[in-house]
């Protein structure tokens, strides 16, 4: 690391507040200049909102496997307002987590290389040893899913269990724990993978694709209510 956390923040820490960096300001007027080079694998995920029951087993499994401290979360399941009329009331459950963008704004703005896209898997990750806590990546992410880990003092987020379950040859903890099989994970570069086949077979949408981020988190829309991209 060429500069310490303290030295970097002393020289540039105020810039993030004076330049007005934000997800909308960074990407709202123009898409990113170039797509990051694809590797041999491009891991992605599908969240089937028609199967999700909002049990939060995924969030608890993520917290346990990845030792996520209390007060922060790599994954959230958000419940919509009631849809329909009593007694036929229904809810939509939406996954909020890192999108593992092929064209990740957080990677482009990171001054130290702490935010990076793994060349072997396409997973967007964080090198805590390089993170100086400047907050650029948090501000640049249009999905607002990054946070500062209170224990490591570095940026953190979902990494598809890259350093835990995937390293052991398992699927991400959220996928393994889902009782309704609402989550499907796999290689988007492989047309025969379960995730690629599912995207072909079912209607899917991705969030904020108009920004040019090319997210790899796909969602099968719930049957009720308005679906927004």
Explain what you see.
This protein has 229 residues and is α+β, with helices and mostly antiparallel strands. It has one domain: Alpha-Beta Plaits, CATH 3.30.70.20. 22% of the residues lie in helices and 15% in strands. It contains 8 helices and 9 strands. A hairpin with a 6-residue loop joins strand 6 and strand 7. The protein starts with a helix and ends in a 9-residue tail after the last strand. Pfam families: Fer4_11.
Core attributes:
229 residues, alpha+beta, two-stranded antiparallel ribbon, 22% helix, 15% strand, 4 iron, 4 sulfur cluster binding, metal-binding, 4Fe4S_Fe-S-bd
Helix proportion: 10-25%
* CATH-assigned fold name: Alpha-Beta Plaits
Identify the CATH class: Alpha Beta
Shape: globular
Q: Trace the largest sheet across and list its strands.
A: 8-1-9
Largest sheet: 3 strands, mixed
CATH architecture: 2-Layer Sandwich
Query: How many separate domains?
Result: 1
- Low-pLDDT runs of 5+ residues are 1-36, 224-229
Going by helix content, strand content and strand pairing, the class is: alpha+beta
Q: Tell me the strand percentage band.
A: 15-25%
- N-to-C series of helices and strands: HHHEHEEHEEHEEHEHE
What does this entry show, briefly?
It comes from Photobacterium proteolyticum. The protein is an alpha+beta fold and 229 residues long.
List the helices and strands and how they pair.
Elements: H1 5-12, H2 15-18, H3 23-27, E1 43-48, H4 57-66, E2 75-79, E3 93-97, H5 105-109, E4 115-117, E5 124-126, H6 136-140, E6 147-148, E7 155-156, H7 173-177, E8 183-187, H8 194-201, E9 217-220
Parallel strand pairs: 1-9
Antiparallel strand pairs: 1-8, 2-3, 4-5, 6-7
